[in-house]
Amino acid sequence: MSVFENAKQNNHDFLKRKFDMGNKQEKEHLRKNARLILVANNEEKSDTIRQFIMKMPQYLSAKVVYLFMSLPNEPSTKELIAEILGEKIVAIPIVDGKEIKFARLYPNMRLVSRKFNIMEPENIEIMHQEADIIFIPMVAFDKNFGRLGHGYGYYDKYLKTLKRGVKVGLAFSDYEVENVFSTDNDITMDIIVTDEGIFERKG
Q1: β-strand partners of 166
Q2: Could you tell me if residue 69 is left (phi over 0), alpha (psi between -120 and 50 degrees) or otherwise beta?
Q3: SS3 state at 144
Q4: Which SS3 state, helix, strand or coil, does residue 117 take?
Q5: Domain residue limits at 126
Q6: How many separate domains does the chain show?
Q7: What's the mean pLDDT in 147-158?
Q8: What is the CATH number of the domain that holds 178?
Q9: Which of 19-28, 100-109, 144-153 is predicted least confidently?
């Protein structure tokens, strides 16, 4: 590499680090603002989201479904999980060090609160079968199907390993923003479902 090419590469790396740092700050600002939003009628909106999901062709044809145990500011998945447990193979995420894995969920299975107060199966059976459809929580989202997570990178790392499966982000419509400041490390959703409808990315 010539001196000119080396200087050009160093400049590119510097600008990328500056860009990523700026995006990181913007993302933290979005997360702080999202925590301040109190969603009205969240139970009713959660039920609307559940009904939308139950009509999705991608969901209806799926045999293996990966879901998440919702936190208070997220669409409730409790009723959805209860409804489909007897019909499909269901798995939920567990935190394992710096990554997440998915564990099989059975009817009447005992759940315990673990890291981040997220409910996980007491007896863990790791899934090795990839999902046909995976539902993913979103702190915020934008019209370009960008997703803002909680900032730990668990889902983005996991989603990069997938060879198949439809990626569906779930959130209340209240959390739509103009821009979530996605970077190369962030995974775009295939579909976003809110209380206002089902939005599918084209192409």
Answers
A1: 133
A2: beta
A3: coil
A4: helix
A5: 3-200
A6: 1
A7: 89
A8: 3.40.50.10420
A9: 19-28
CB 119 within 8 A of CB 151: no
Q: Is 59 in a helix, a strand, or coil?
A: helix
What is the number of other CB atoms lying within 10 angstroms of the CB of residue 166? 19
Give dist(CA 146, CA 182) in Å, integer: 6
Find the helix or strand (DSSP H, E) in which 63 lies.
Answer: none
For residues 83-115, b (16+ Cβ closer than 10 Å) or e, as one string? ebbeebbbbbbbeeeeebbbbbbeeeeeeeeee
The token pair at 27 is: 């993302």
Write the pLDDT tens digit of every residue in 31-47. 888 877 878 889 999 99
Q: Is the dihedral of CA 105, 107, 111, 116 positive or negative?
A: positive
pLDDT single digits (tens) 29-88: 888 888 778 788 899 999 999 999 999 999 999 999 999 999 888 999 999 999 999 899
Residue with tokens 């009628």: 41
